[in-house]
Amino acid sequence: MSTIGYDSWAVDLAEVGAVYPFQGSEGLMVVLGVIFWIGWHRIQFVREGAHLEKAKRIGDRDKINSLLEKY
Amino acid sequence: MDGNLNALTTVFTEFYYWVTVVFMFLIHVGFCMYEVGASRHRNHMHTLMKNIMIIPLVTVTFFFFGWWIYWAFPSFPFFGGLNHDAGAANLPWSQNMGTNLSDRITGVFWAAFLLFSWTAASIVSGAVIERIRSSALWLHAVMIGSVFWIIDAAWGWHAEGWMVKYLGYHDAYASGVIHAIAGGYALGVIMVLGPRIGKFAADGTPRDIPPHNPWMLTIGIFLIYSGFWGFYAACNIPVISPEGIGGLLTGETWTATNIYLAPTSLSAITFNFLMSLSGGLMAAYVVSKGDAFWTFSGGLAGIITASAGNDLYHPIQAMLVGAVGVVIVYKLHYWVERTFKIDDAVGAVAVHGYSGIVGLILAGFLLWGAPSSPYEGYATVNPVGQTIGAVIMFFVLGFLPAFVISKIQAAMGVLRIPVEVELQGLDYAEHHAYEDAKAAIIEADKAALDGGSVPAE
User: Which of the residues B282, B291, B381 would you substitute to probe the A interface, choosing the one with the greatest number of A C-beta atoms within 10 Å?
Assistant: First the structure.
């Protein structure tokens, strides 16, 4: 048994198509991929919100003035 | 070259490898920029020189003996003797190793492998910045670039390598044969070399030593990404007939192959390169909480983790493998740093070494049962073979020789620079010469402006 559907290259390549592992599970792979993508946005959004909330309270007026001067 | 089709194939192959070599040069440019950006002002020129001189030193030694090792060592020493027939054509005095109109491939193929050698040495170079003696690093560069990595290539990255035959070892884009070995080698050196002054507080807490120029690091790593395209293409045979392969393949359909002469395509690796880069970047952003340099390095680690199987993976598999690898690698880096007080200045052991190991093992599961070769009698890909392969790459051919050689260098007092020099900076003398020269020329210009004599041109 082979995850790619071939356990030997004794084949005519003219008759070979997909050779990635777990053919037939493309739908599941897309679902997993989309969960990863959406999950990333969720984590990033929540963390950025928390960071901005914290950041807006830590500024020192003199340091901000100096940063504005620096452009 | 008999017949126009053969001529065209040969010239195309020759040009193909030549282009990959030019692309791969960017990897070295990127490593140089990354290292200099990560070092402090007082060490710039030595840091740059240390990496640049890898180029000639590894090139000439790879010409003298490295290339011969690749052809002579596939079975040596465990499953046969040296392959003198194949080795003979690649000895430095062979007529194939020069301008020869009946062999248009050896030069570009040698160069493609050589650029991998530079990469392996350059990975080690980054981990040891700001405290190693250049002479010590250059010996290590030759050892990994022209000896140890090319032994592993003969064993596990060659159509007749014993690891491929008996272990079913599969490492199409070099997770292990370049990255795991170089990461293991770097770890062996820095364990003996010790951390930079100030890296650890008195209670052992690690301190961050920030790069002096973040933009230089950024451009450096983007150049490494760019060069990695050439690296991927260089790992393929661009076009070959089933008859040319001479294995079990039937029919008349020509194909691109991986280094084992098993079929793949540039399209497959383009999908997988980009998806594993993306998976690595996304996972690294999350796990490092948006740390810019870990995120960028995570892109690289994602590709490296997926590289062992990127000739066969589905793009989503490549993305997820890259992502999983990066999380493991990031956690492992800080655990090792805290536990063993290891100062890996650029994260080379993690990004290359740990990613390589994880990538090999994951490929063993995901490609379980896939043929490792187009030839009869070879073991198929399996998790045990891949894990043994990872140990051979990282530990046996990487960590172990580096540790032993570094111990000898340390015992001889030729591994690390003196504390005084480390504090004043490796460029101290050059900086003074520069400042003196500057002062002298400013004084001369001012004298000329005040009506004095014009200095001779």
Answer: B282
